[in-house]
Amino acid sequence: MAISFLEYPFQVLRIIFNSIFVQSNKHDKVMPTMIQFIAMDCEMVGCGRNGSESLLARCSLVSLGDSISREPTNVDARSDAKVVKNINVLYDVYVKPTKNVTDYRTQYSGITAKHLEREEAVSWDKCHSDVKKVLESTNDKRVVLIGHGLENDFQVLKYWHPRRFVRDTATFHHFMRQGRRKLLPRKLSSLAEEHLGVKIQSNKDMSQFIDINYGEYESKYSEHSEGHSSIEDAAAALLLYHKFSEQWEDSLGNPLENRGD
Questions:
Q1: Distance (Å, rounded) from C-alpha 113 to C-alpha 103?
Q2: What does the alpha-carbon distance between residue 181 and residue 183 come to, in Å, rounded to a whole number?
Q3: Sign of CA dihedral 79, 171, 89, 52
Q4: What angle do the packed helices 150-157 and 124-136 form, to 10 degrees?
Q5: CB 216: neighbour CB atoms within 10 A?
Q6: Following CA atoms 71, 75, 76, 82 in sequence, which dihedral angle do they give, to the nearest 10 degrees?
Q7: What is the pLDDT of residues 176-216, one digit of tens each?
Q8: 3-class SS at 233?
Q9: Over the stretch 231-258, which tens digit does the pLDDT of each residue have?
């Protein structure tokens, strides 16, 4: 017998809701397929006295190249992370400064005046709009945002991703070090070398460690001769999450999973 929406509204809504997710059986915990994992990293330059105020200078977004959507699996993600090294660059732009730059912080940011003077450099408004559009929904999927020290990126972008969908490698307890009174964040480069066997922020060819598909952005990356690369840092954060995702999500109570009733 067909179900009438007017007679059985809750039954109909339940069918619609369940159709969004893939469920293996009645009692399994299931990861929604309507999720995309994206990592972000921003580079900043300084303005004001001694360059102490940060300005957005570059923004990069990357995703896993092999499989963007996270599927339910019985395999421990910690054991096979090194297999998934293909990274796709989704977005990578230099951003025109909104104030006079007094310190390019090149030894850390990799940014020089010529990067921000390029014809292809975009305005802060365009970068903000582009990033917001990607992170609010990609391919009609909810985005889980990954990065290292994301609060700093949020500040210069003036964009705050929903906390439930943020995974920050600077604040994941497994990655932190014990201070005198509290846990403290570790450097992304140390985490990448320890857990991934990858040396980032060293101005070396990364192709032997991570296969990055730069697409239209490859020429931009090749210009860096010192400092950090936001693509490289975002890729490292994404792979760290992928390797420890099961443990990470368990520690949060698996908020991304849908439990079948």
A1: 10
A2: 7
A3: negative
A4: 120
A5: 8
A6: -80
A7: 998 888 899 999 999 999 999 888 887 666 666 778 888 88
A8: helix
A9: 999 999 999 999 999 999 999 999 988 6
